TrEMBL record:
Belongs to the DapA family. The keyword Repressor does not apply. It comes from Scophthalmus maximus (Turbot). Keywords: Lyase, Schiff base. PANTHER family: 4-HYDROXY-2-OXOGLUTARATE ALDOLASE, MITOCHONDRIAL, DIHYDRODIPICOLINATE SYNTHASE. Its EC number is 4.1.3.16. This is 4-hydroxy-2-oxoglutarate aldolase, mitochondrial.
Length: 305
């Protein structure tokens, strides 16, 4: 899965960076990416704006034969990603198999990525948990480990209770306490729960909630959210190559449309798509069809069995 920003509304919102994040960079925990993420237009102290334009492949988590996280293989994979002009990476998203990792493992993966990520690349880390308290704590740890933003999935175990009021309260509490920007994550195929548009519109008004990654594929819903959040500098991200082209068409008249963030295994092809989509609709449509053919979830590790 790749993620790509489809819509831009004037300037992205101001965001805060944690002192702990800066400390991690200074201590070497952030490696080359500590200050480098700021070089991508993503980070820096006081008043720097977070711009999500570009493609962010959500990376998989490699495991050893003993089912431990294989950090060496992860670093090798990151070297390959570094050769492709992505804006950054999504770490500990659905493709990272985060439900099968402990919180400590999730944070260690982010630390490894931060150390290995080239300067100028943005790191978006999944920090969603079932409880608000656990999400707040993990978000703090992800920021300290070097994340430039966090991707927070909808809690779903008690989905019958997850109405708009409950979800607004959950995400607001997380965003209030987070030192890095929050990106909402709606992936109903995995959670069985879709983040209601009315909740997204309310949450878009929060100064520390900068966007939504929508992996549901309901183009009418996406278009409605884009329309209703025009005034908030809210950034909508397409979560699947299966509806990438259709999602572009929702906002085809925007002068500021930036490019894709699809979920797909064809990383290099997707990077090319972002450039091609500015050239011609017909050619873009053909490439979009190619992406649909490879838009499958990767084979899960043995931890899933």
């Amino acid at each position: 899965m790749l993620c790509a920003r489809l819509w831009t509304r004037s300037a992205p919102l101001l965001w805060r960076r944690a002192q702990s994040h800066a400390a991690a960079a200074g201590a070497g925990g952030a490696g080359a990416g500590g200050a480098g993420a700021g070089g991508a237009g993503a980070g820096g102290a006081g008043g720097t704006r977070l711009d999500l334009s570009g493609i962010y492949p959500p990376i998989a988590t490699p495991f050893t034969a003993e089912e431990d996280v294989d950090h060496r293989r992860l670093e090798e994979n990151l070297q390959k990603y570094a050769k492709i002009p992505f804006k950054g990476l999504v770490v500990q998203g659905s493709n990272g198999e985060y439900p099968y990792l402990t919180q400590e493992e999730r944070v260690e993966v982010v630390r490894t990525v931060r150390r290995s990520l080239p300067a100028g690349k943005l790191l978006m880390a999944g920090s969603g948990c079932e409880s608000t308290r656990a999400t707040v704590r993990l978000t703090e740890e992800m920021a300290a480990a070097g994340a430039d933003a966090v991707l927070v999935v909808t809690p779903c175990f008690y989905k019958g209770k997850m109405d708009s009021r409950a979800l607004i309260q959950h995400f607001t509490t997380v965003a209030d306490s987070s030192a890095v920007p929050v990106v909402l994550y709606s992936v109903p195929a995995n959670t069985g729960l879709e983040l209601p548009p009315e909740a997204v519109v309310r949450l878009a008004q929060h100064p520390n909630i900068v966007g939504l990654k929508d992996s549901g594929g309901d183009i009418t819903r996406i278009g409605l959210i884009v329309h209703q959040t025009e005034a908030q500098d809210f950034q909508v991200l397409a979560g699947s190559a299966g509806f990438l082209m259709a999602a572009y068409c929702v906002d085809s008249h925007s002068q500021n449309s930036q490019g894709p963030r699809p979920d797909s295994g064809s990383l290099a092809t997707s990077a090319c798509t972002r450039r091609t989509l500015r050239v011609g609709v017909k050619q873009s449509w053909l490439i979009s069809l190619d992406l649909c053919a490879v838009d499958d979830q990767p084979e899960l590790s043995s931890r899933s069995t």
